[in-house]
Amino acid sequence: MYTTGFPYFHYTNVIMIFLGVLFIYLAIRKNYEPLLLIPIGFGMTFANIPGIDALMQSVDSEGSVMYFLYQGVRLGIYPPLIFMGVGAMTDFSSLIANPKLIFLGFAAQFGIFTTFLGALFLGFNITEAASIGIIGSSDGPTSIFLAARLAPELLGTIALAAYSYMALVPILQPPVIRLLTTPKERVIRMQTPRVVTKRERILFPIVAFIITSIIAPAGAILLGFLFFGNLLKEAGVVERLATTAKTALIDICTILIGLCIGATTSGAAFLRPETILIVTLGALSFMLATASGVMGAKLMNLFMKEKINPIIGAAGLSVVPGSARVCQKVGQEYDKGNHLLMHAMAPNVSGVIGSAVVAGVLLGALS
Q1: What pTM was computed for the model?
Q2: What is the pLDDT of the chain when averaged over all its residues?
Q3: 55 burial type by CB count under 10 A (0-12 exposed, 13-18 middle, 19+ buried)
Q4: Positive or negative, the Cα torsion across 19, 24, 29, 34?
Q5: 15/267 Cα distance (integer angstroms)
Q6: 2 vs 344: CA distance, rounded Å
Q7: Lowest-confidence range among 47-56, 127-136, 168-177?
Q8: pLDDT at 55 over 70
Q9: Which of 100, 195, 293, 337 lies deepest, with the highest CB count within 10 Å?
Q10: Residue 155: what are its φ and ψ, rounded to 5°?
Q11: Do the Cβ atoms of 119 and 333 come closer than 8 Å?
Q12: Is 307 within 8 Å of 339 (Cβ atoms)?
């Protein structure tokens, strides 16, 4: 009897299995970031099969397969590898052509600091508050990277919240954009960016890595892998390496990190008031980050002759290219001929850089 799961049954397992299946449904039926939600949803289901813990099969069971796979999350191995893949598939041309838009990516990080202060007010210690605040960057790898070092006891909850909000970008961002922009602002058309030379594209990852790593040396591992991946892409002489980084490598890491995150959500440990509070704070951080990006664009318009469509400020989150696509979709609801994607990619990629810099600053200050 005790070799089956029946003696270990708990109602929290049913709740979490339902949530896992819901994630899988949203991924398949609604196409909400299936690359993230399917592994996470299946991992949640796996973690809540009654008896997994007792029979030494969970991520906490030393010697089990899941335990060893989870070390890539706990030790922060997967996030830099994912950043390398992101760099290899990212085109920084829009940012190079219009560098002032980098301020939108950095403006969107404002949500991190406000949520950090809110978490401190609610009783979390300073390292936990920093790890919770970084959820607002909507950058799953960065959230894991920081939480693994500053608040390992909250790693599973923070990682799940960050990746869940990444997947829900198409639902959560449009209402914030519409609330903070006027009909006149939504139809602003921006000039086509200039053509960027190959030399500029090659120099950018080298120069950007040096500058950002000097600013935040504690984040150099993330920044280094991001810009190294981009250099592989832009160099044009190591196509095999660039292709591997942006396909097989990032796909393998995404599968493992999603599955392992989901596998940390056993019902008894996950369904606690503290968890609900962290998820709520994460949602607040996400909303504030979106709002601060939009408001940053509106603020820049006060001093610029050539106006920015403030919708693209929402792309300052690190969901590449998800946030940029949301901006494109919202913009075309009001002007079908207005193509914002190329412009939104500039704050989108600068948001990735910004979140890594902020994580490095927090890690350097608090570790």
Answers
A1: 0.90
A2: 90
A3: middle
A4: positive
A5: 7
A6: 56
A7: 47-56
A8: no
A9: 293
A10: -55, -50
A11: no
A12: no
Rounded CA-CA distance 75/145 in Å is 8
Give the total residue count for the chain: 367
Confidence of residue 167 (pLDDT cuts 50, 70, 90): confident
Scan for tokens 């995404």, then name that residue: 254
- CA gap 317, 139 in Å, rounded: 8
Residue with tokens 């190079």: 96
Q: What angle in degrees, to the nearest 10, is found between the helix axes of 250-262 and 65-74? A: 110
Phi and psi torsions of 57, nearest 5°: -120, 0
DSSP sequence for 41-106: HHHHHHHTSTTTTTTT-STTSTTSHHHHHHHHHHTT-HHHHHHHHHHHH---HHHHHSGGGHHHHH
- Better pLDDT: 109 or 244: 244
What was the pLDDT predicted at 320? 84
> Where are the chain's structural domains?
73-366
Q: Compute the distance between CA of residue 281 and CA of residue 218 in angstroms, rounded to an integer.
A: 25
Tell me the torsion sign for CA atoms 250, 293, 362, 212: positive
pLDDT tens, position by position, 66-100: 999 999 999 889 999 999 999 999 999 999 999 99
b/e per residue 202-218 (b: at least 16 CB within 10 A): bebbeebbeebbeebeb
Token pair recorded at residue 93: 């041309």
Q: How far apart are CA 264 and CA 113, in angstroms?
A: 27
Q: List Cβ neighbours of 137 (8 Å cut-off, separation of 6 or more).
A: 108, 109, 111, 112, 143, 289, 317, 318, 351, 354, 355, 358, 359
The alpha carbon of 279 is separated from its chain's Cα centroid by a whole number of angstroms, namely: 15
Sign of the torsion formed by the C-alpha atoms of 291, 98, 306 and 358: positive
Count the neighbouring beta carbons within 10 Å of the beta carbon of residue 113.
17
234 Cβ neighbours under 8 A, 6+ residues apart: 198, 201, 202, 204, 205
